[in-house]
Amino acid sequence: VVEPVGAWAAAEPAFATGVGRRSGSVDDNQPLSALHIVEAVQRTTKYDVPPREGTMALSQALFDAIVDGKAQLAQSLVEEELKTGTEPLALVSETMIPAMDEVGKLFQEEEYFVPELLLSARAMKAAMTPLRPLLAAKGAKPAGVVVAGAVKGDLHDIGKNLVTSMLEGAGFQVIDLGADVAPEAFVAAIREHRPQIVCLSALLTVTMESMRTTIAAIKAADLRREVKILVGGAPLNERYATEIGADGYGATASDAVALARRHVGLSN
Amino acid sequence: MSAEKTIGPRRKRALDAINHRTPDGAPVDFGGSATTGMHVSCVAKLRDHYGLEKRPVKVCEPFQMLGLIEDDLKEAIGVDVAPLMGRGTFFGFDNRDWKPWSFNGLDVLVPEGFRTTVEPEKGGLLIYPKGDLAARPSGHMPKDGFFFDAIIRQKPIDLDNLDPEDNVEQYQPLTEAQLDDIEEDARALESGDYAVFASLVNTNLGDIAWAPGCDLIEPKGVRDVAEWYMLTASRPDVVHKIFDRQVEVGIDNLARIHQRLGDDAIDVIFLCGTDFGTQTSSFCSVRTFDSLWKPHYAEVCGWIHKHTTWKTFKHSCGASERFFESMIDAGVDIVNPVQCSAKGMDPRMLKEKYKGRLVFWGGGVDTQRTLPFGTPTEVRAEVLERCEIFSQGGGFVFNAIHNVQANTPVENMVAMFEAVKEFNGRR
Questions:
Q1: CB B37 within 8 A of CB B58
Q2: Could you report the predicted ipTM of this complex, rounded to two decimals?
Q3: Which one of A119, A148, A191, B311 is most buried, by most CB atoms within 10 A?
């Protein structure tokens, strides 16, 4: 529905699944982002080096740990794997991104729900911890850059956090601006980070209009042609998205990922 | 309380509806509970529209900033239900000792414990648990916002050493003073000819609204919204223990209320506000619902049905239909808010499938689109259609789908009330 919390609140989101949570990503305020993954690797899953013997068995364990949402296990499996010389990019592209794809598939099939999605996102984040500096050192590029936030006046960010986690799991670098984000903050972030995609989230009927003003501010700053704008949230629909001049509407986190992939030229 | 409550036309209409008999018209609830109310600004606009005595509206529910719908407004819009809520609030202070407060320029009344400070930089409002300005604030309203959201005050979590007791601090036995207040309020409703809708015990099992512990000075346990959701999947053993304790305290409180008030003072009791549906899906599978929630609901509903004549009311937003059979099995009599805009919540299908088995309390008009953004003509058409569908054979209490939101045009609200009257006039 439309307003604050839970029982007393809104039927829930789509992008914005959520309720009374302050800004910050699923686990904390550290953006998962910086998933530095070579775009080509994302598409073709080519190794820089051939996989060593035994990689697949351990990768299966890592795959399962992410799908099962076991954060500590996922991280320790990555650490073990790195010790034995496994190529970081291979771990990400061969095992971790496919694991998050599987999570998305299970969510779409209603085998998984919000709690499982959150657990897997946390496991993915934990698994990325030891990999992030190694990938950055290699100068790897993400699949795309996304700026995301819940719009001005809206403090609900669980749905937005799900979207950002899923995007990061799909290899995007996400600049998460948090909740209650003013139009000028989106504009500044676009100037600074040069994203291909901007994701706007709102849970409330009384904050939906902030999406329109945000898009207007992006236009006024002459940045509209540089970005694709995707919107989501419980009270939204395709018609509203079109009416306010967005490029796409996602009813679920999986939809958002599919749209983002399409906009950067990746197949789903 | 020994005197039997009168059954006048309003209460009879509601009782007929909730007992699946055809009433003389669709009974109406606005203000009966924290999920069937109206934003205080809407209540103020309606009072102006109907030319009622000019006075500030009381904010009777400070989290969502719901306004008290007094008897004169009930009369004007045709309400048949009255709330019995006790004095406690979501932020842990009591609804008493009212004081004037300016809410975005609107003069309202808030309880003495409603104490706020202005958030540095962004200029929003911060509100404090139990009105204690020395505590960390537990609620936040953005500048120019319309209601509060929880501030998460999560301490580090050790998942291997969780103590379920940490999460049941909010669920305590009622004090004798609280029971006295409840009895006093119930007595005041005796002469009102309203069906009485009681929200008195916190058997909200895992309601995400309550998870952050906005009423607690220093909440312990799992208080982060995302962490709570994850806990339901990763540690159902802990969640069961929390629910066990909550149900134990809840039933004890119900028994003491029943001992004081008897059957007749209450017609409907709010059971739980946990949302199971989302816009397009749900928060868990039916299998999880059946294993994690259903046994606890069955225990509470079982006690209520064995010892009282009260009907049990379950709120669950979104695409909740998949859980209805389980809810019926557990002893739920009434569902709300009947979010027909969510996936799989077609009103005709719902009525056909659950006629005589579930009361639909809500579903009257969409508060995401039609009511706030539609025209009065569109509102009227939707209300008439919903009344036509849901009213057949009773089992329907008219309410919008959840609370009427701030910024809803007054002409749309009036169109909604007039459409219900039009429908009822045809019968």
A1: no
A2: 0.93
A3: A148
